[in-house]
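Sequence of ROK family transcriptional regulator (Variovorax rhizosphaerae).
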Amino acid sequence: MRQFNERVVLQAIRLHGALPKAEIARVTHLTAQTVQIIIARLEADGLVLKHAPVRGKIGQPSIPMALNPDGAYSIGIKIGRRSLDVLLVDFTAQVRERLTLDYEFPDPDTLFDEIRSRLAALRKSLGPKRAQLLHGIGIAAPLSLGGWQSLLGVAPERAGKWSRIDIQAKVAAMTVLPVEMVKDTSAACVAELVAGRGRSIRSFLYIYIDTFIGGGLVIDSHLRHGVTGNAGAVGSMPLGLGGADGAPPRQLLSVASLFTLEAMYAKAKLDPSAFADERALQAPWLPVTQAWMRESALAIALAIDSAAALLDLDGVIIDGSFSREMLAALLAQVGEAFDHYSWEGVTRPQILAGAIGADARAIGGALLPLYGNFAPDRDLFLKVER
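Predicted 3D structure, token representation.
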């Protein structure tokens, strides 16, 4: 019970920001005396620190207590179809260091050596004392990393290597730290739930646009994994009826994914990497980007309409590994695309921009060990009500 109450206090501060002890007692429903004792222990352990006193008109000034960024660390690894990110994340979920590697498609014969060297580099940068505060490694990777090879233009034998590899076990063999793994878009959803808009929205569908579009599902502030860990896999949603000729309809990921935009850029003899920066909304890339957004917005709106018929949602959060300006433009088009569908009998959900961006998957991975050690219920990502 003592450890649980400590975690409840830490969770309250994480979700609501720096709070004075009286406010912590109010939001956690713990007694003032209990909070006083817990804060003293947490401060002695280096997990919280005092902010400057806030002086009011009456009585003693209140002293907000905040998480100590240097109280704990974790490492998040994102293994994507186009790039590797290895992040050092502090106790407040801020990125301290970022090590990346770009590629056309990940090769397991060389990728794990790259991961090993980056883990060693991060430990070295922390130094012996701070390295003792590392609490684990979280991996975010697609469940079917070798899938859809025909869409990506990857040789089957090259993609097939991933079906024979236990990613978690390979990374665990490199370290004494505990290692956890989660689907990449679920990890991004975790980051949004803990450090983004999810702190104020109880039930939402999360959509993340990268090489492939994917997602996650949060119901009543709980991340839902599903039986196979694939809940919220919006990328696999069909975009129409099966044809009489037996041909299946296209999936959402075949339209509203960044690999499609890359291919459109390449066909126009433009640099495909422009989707990740401001060039996407500048000439000569802009007309191509706009064409991709128009079709993607219609497809995403259809997926949301279908989801709204099954789920009672407070909203839909959309994010991606591109600029915030491009995200705003895409969200505006999705809102307009809603008008092309009937919403009779269905509540039209609000659309919100994600707050994390390109680091969402790796940050979500890094949050897994932090929650395992410091949250009251890491599996459900339970939130304290305010």
